[in-house]
Design goal:
- The structure holds two protein chains of two kinds.
- By secondary structure, chain A is an alpha+beta fold.
- In chain A, strand 1 and strand 2 form a beta hairpin.
- The longest helix of chain A has 9 residues.
- Chain A starts with a strand and ends with a helix.
- Chain B is α+β, with helices and mostly antiparallel strands.
- Chain B folds into two domains: 92 residues, Gyrase A, domain 2 (2-Layer Sandwich), CATH 3.30.1360.120; 62 residues.
- A six-stranded antiparallel sheet of chain B has the order 1-2-8-11-10-9, with helices on one face.
- Chain B is globular.
- The termini of chain B are far apart.
- At the A-B interface, strand 2 of A face strand 9 of B.
- Bound molecules: zinc ion.
- Chain A: Pfam families: SoxD.
- Chain A: One of its GO terms (biological process) is tetrahydrofolate metabolic process.
- Chain A: GO terms for molecular function: sarcosine oxidase activity.
């Protein structure tokens, strides 16, 4: 598996660290317990297209949002998390 | 007065020549990490103070003995000069790294076994942050081979891993067809 980092280009999977769903970018307001519970624990988990956070740990150190199909392993798009979170 | 003895990171381990390849340690030089603050412009000030401006992503710029490497997103290493006051986070990295050069005909085969980069794509002065074995490394394509920089504490592991592969690649080349 290879991920096309917007900074570094096409790189091997072993350079990246996987965090989890890109939902982590949308942190709810403090005190909203239901929203925080959902933010931490509730995931769609589709057998299809997902968006996840990956860290280019052994590369440029960017956080990336990688859109991929978990059924086919196809990678559909890679964006800098800093751009997505704007 | 105590005389302190300066020891390089790979002291006593290098140079080694195996088959057509040589692994040599580069002398330690003054080195600073420069991470410009958000939106800050530091290139012109660096150029004025050191003669070298910031390189593009994945590149190095150099003039005389001074060089600047792109080393990560928003991070550069200034080598061979002291940085001026800049709107940037600056840390002294001198003595913190071990820098070696792998040269020789079979150097690309050796690198191919330990590094996931597509090294055939790299031209002289290209810089990449990647892995060598399990170590995070800065790799610079030089005219005479690959410069590999790892944290100083990994000097022994780096030389060990590269030696093993140099031996193996050389032995394989000597096998009858
Ligand atoms: Zn990257």
């Amino acid at each position: 598996m290879r991920i096309n980092c917007p900074i570094c280009g096409d790189r091997d999977r072993r350079e990246f660290y996987y965090l989890g769903a890109s939902d982590y970018l949308n942190r709810p307001a403090e005190g909203d317990l239901d929203a925080i519970h959902k933010y931490l624990h509730i995931r769609e988990n589709p057998a299809g297209v997902t968006k996840d956070l990956w860290h280019h740990e052994a590369g440029c150190s960017s956080w990336l949002v990688v859109e991929r199909n978990v059924s086919t392993h196809e990678i559909l798009g890679v964006e800098l998390a800093s751009e997505v979170a704007k | 007065m105590i005389d302190l003895i300066a020891k390089s990171a790979a002291e006593g381990l290098l140079p080694v020549t195996i088959g057509t390849m040589t692994l040599t340690e580069l002398p330690l030089r003054k080195m600073h990490s420069i991470a410009p603050f958000k939106g800050a412009e530091v290139s012109a000030a660096l150029k004025k103070a050191t003669g070298v401006s910031l390189p593009d992503t994945g590149r190095a710029t150099a003039k005389d003995d001074v060089e600047i490497l792109w080393t990560a997103r928003g991070q550069y290493f200034l080598i061979g000069a002291t940085p001026p006051k800049l709107p940037a986070a600056i840390t002294d990295q001198s003595d913190a790294w071990c820098s070696v050069v792998l040269s020789g005909e079979s150097a690309p085969q050796v690198m191919a076994r330990v590094c996931p980069l597509d090294l055939g794509q790299m031209g002289e002065g290209d810089v990449a942050r990647s892995l060598v074995g399990h170590m995070t490394a800065i790799i610079v394509k030089r005219a005479d081979g690959f410069e590999i920089m790892v944290f100083r504490a990994f000097a022994k592991t780096l030389t060990h891993e590269l030696r093993e592969v140099m031996v193996s690649v050389t032995a394989q080349a000597a096998l009858p067809e």
